[in-house]
Amino acid sequence: MKSYTDPETQKVYHSPVIPKFVGITVTACLITALTACLLTLLFVRKNFSKYTRLEELDAYIQKNYYLDLNDEDQEKMMDYMLKGYVAGLGDKYSQYLTPEEYNEFLTKESGKTVGIGVTVIQGEDGYPEILEVQENSPAQTAGLQVGDVITAVDGIDILEAGYTESIANIKGEEHSSVMITILRENSTENYEVIRETFDVATAKGEMLADQIGYIRITNFRENTVEQFLSALEELKNAGAKGFIFDVRDNGGGLLNSLEKMVDPLLPEGVIATATYHGGRTETVVKSDPEELNLPMVVLVNGNSASAAELFSASLRDFKQAKLVGTQTYGKGVMQVTARTDDGGGLSLTVATYQTSRSECYQGVGLEPDVIVELPESFTIGLSDREDDIQLATAIELLKNN
Fold first, then answer.
1. Per-residue pLDDT for 138 more than 90?
2. Which residue range forms the structural domain that includes residue 123?
3. Which residue in 111, 166, 241, 394 has the most C-beta neighbors within 10 A?
C-alpha cells in the first residue's frame, strides 16, 4: 500500500499498489477479447455474405413469382433448401429428412412398418399377386392369402389407376382403412383392411436337408437381433451341423444390431473399427469368448451392402465362413442420424469402417470365395428354391466340410 498526508486536513490516505503482472494480465485479457470479437466479426461477415445469396434469391421469388405463396408453399421450399444444402456434399448417403420422413425413419429402424403386410409381384395381366402375407399383419387378420390377385384398391381398378399408384394407395396412415378387391379361384370379394404398425420379419430360420440351418436376414433392424438369435438357438437345439446365412438383397442397417448378431458366432476380440474425421479410430464391433464352432457359409450378391457386407467380411476374416454368390455392393461408410430442432433429421456420413483384419471395402465390395451367377429370371425369395444354384452351392460346401 502507498500512503500520503493531506497538507490541509493532515489525514492519511492509502492507495493499493497494482503489481506489474496484474497489469500485464489485464492487457492480455483485453487483447484476447478483442481477438475473439474480431474473429466473430469475420465469421459473421463470411456467413452473412454466403446467406445473402439465398436472401436475394428468396426476395426475387417472393416479388416476381406469378402465384401467391402460402405457408405450406414456404415450408416446402425450406425443406427443399435444406435437402439441397446437404446434397451439396455430393454424398449420396447424407440427407436432410423432413419431420415426416424422420418419423418414418425411426419406425423403419425399429423394425416396424405401417401398412397391411403383403408382398406382391406384378403378373403378366398387370394385376399384383400376393406372394407373402406377413405373420400377425393386418392382411392376415383380414383373411388375405398367398395367391390372391388384387384387382382393385378402394373400388378403383388396378389397370385404371396404374400399378405403381395402386400399390402406393394400399399404404397409408395408421388405423385408416383400405378396401382391397381380391380375385380368388374365379371369385371376387372385397376385404376391408385396417392399416396398422406391426413388426417386420427381418430374420427367419429353417432346417434344410442334411441338418443344415438356414437363416435369411433381410435387414439389420432393432428387432432383427431377437429374431436372429431365436432362430439360431432353435436350429442349434434341433441339431444343426452347419449354417447358411443369406444376406442377399440386404441393404444393411444398424451397427448395434450387427454387433449383437456376430457376437455369438465369432471369437473374443475387436471385430471392426471405424475411422472418423481427423483420423480418429474407434472400436465399433467386438465379441466375447463364446463362439459358434460349426462350418458356415454366407450368401451375398450385388445388393448386399453396408452392415450386410460387414457381417459377411467379419465371418470370413475370422476364418468362420466362406462367401458364395457375386460381388457385393461396396458401402463401407457409416451414417449417424440426429434429430434437428425443426423436428426433422440429418443423416450424415461420419466414418469409414472395416474389420480389424482387412481393408475398407468402400466402393470396392467383397469378392466371394466361390462366385456363382444366378439367371436373370431368378428372383430371390420369389422364385422356386430348386432353381437357386447359389444356395445349392452353399449346401454342397457345407456337406463337403
1. yes
2. 112-198
3. 394
Rg (CA), the chain: 31
- How confident is residue 173, by pLDDT bands cut at 50, 70 and 90? confident
Q: Are residues 117 and 161 in the same domain?
A: yes
Handedness of CA 263, 267, 270, 274 (dihedral sign): negative
pTM over 0.85: no
Enclosing H/E stretch for 226: helix 224-237
pLDDT tens for residues 102-133?
998 998 899 988 899 998 888 889 999 998 89
CB neighbour list of residue 178: distance below 8 Å, 6 or more residues apart: 116, 153, 154, 169, 170, 172, 192, 193, 195
Alpha-carbon distances, residue 200 vs 14, 134, 232 (angstroms): 83, 8, 18
- Per the DSSP assignment, residues forming a β-bridge with 129 are 121, 149
Cα distance between residue 394 and residue 301, in whole Å: 13
Phi and psi for 110 in degrees, rounded to 5? -75, -15
Residue 206 sits in the same domain as residue 193: no
Residue 314's DSSP bridge partners are: none
- Same structural domain for residues 310 and 390? yes
Cell output for 388: 437357386
Write the CATH number for 291. 3.90.226.10
Q: What is the DSSP string of 52-95?
A: HHHHHHHHHHHHH-SS---HHHHHHHHHHHHHHHHHTT--TT-E
What cell numbers appear for 55 in the block? 436472401
Whether residues 155 and 251 share a domain: the answer is no
Rounded mean pLDDT of the chain?
89
Q: Is residue 156 part of a domain?
A: yes
Answer yes or no: is 146 within a domain: yes
Residue 327 lies in a domain: yes
Q: 344, 269, 264: which is closest to 98 by C-alpha? A: 344
**Residues 61-86, mean pLDDT to the nearest whole number:** 94
